[in-house]
Amino acid sequence: MGGTMTAAESVEHRHPWPVPPKDGYTVDDLFTLPDLPSHTELIDGSLIFVSPQRYFHFLVIELLMKGMRQTLPPELKAVREMAVVLDRQNVPEPDISVVRASAITGPDLTRFRAEDVLLAVEVVSPDSESRDRTTKPHKYAAAGIPNYWRVERGGADGSRPVIHVYELDPMTQAYVHMGMQREQLKVAKPYVIELDLTAVDEL
Q: In angstroms, what CA-CA distances link 173 with 9, 143, 145, 149?
């Protein structure tokens, strides 16, 4: 039997996700709601959908992952685009995380706890500028993640990464800016990493 679709039915037909609950989504919702797009994040109880990434974003993650793994100690692992549970309503997905190897429980693992993350790295995209510069570092720091890198575009044509390095001040539970690194990345935390950032041109 035919009929006219109501406004509510029309909205539901166009958007397969349910209306957000009064107090926002939770961790359990993020991992159980059907048909969410890949790499959906949960920030302050709201679902954040990721826009298609630019080639620069891909290149920088490739460069960093390759370089970071060269000196990675056996008790740590570098992973990309894995969910990190900060609290009940915040589950971001850093572009790269350095985690304790002991936290990897098997191939079906879908998330890490904040206490198992030693470094979170975000490569800034036009649609994520505010989150990567303010929202996420504030939340990573509050959750006790000891190191944060924010990667911006630099160079004359914007083709090379510039990395802002932050370390957590345990007294204030806030990040301290330790410097901006352009052509050569050299850090001692969470482990010794030396990386030629200009090598992005060769990828």
A: 46, 8, 9, 16
**DSSP letter at 144?**
T
d(CA 101, CA 98): 9
Q: Which of 89, 60, 90, 93 is nearest to 79 (CA)?
A: 93
Residues in the chain: 203
Of 18-27, 41-50, 183-192, 193-202, which gets the smallest average pLDDT? 18-27
CB 117 within 8 A of CB 145: yes
Model's pTM, two decimal places? 0.89
User: How far is 95 from 105, CA to CA, in rounded Å?
Assistant: 20
Q: Residue with structure tokens 């790269």?
A: 96
Half-sphere exposure of 140 (CA within 13 A, CB side): 32
- Three-state DSSP class for residue 109: coil
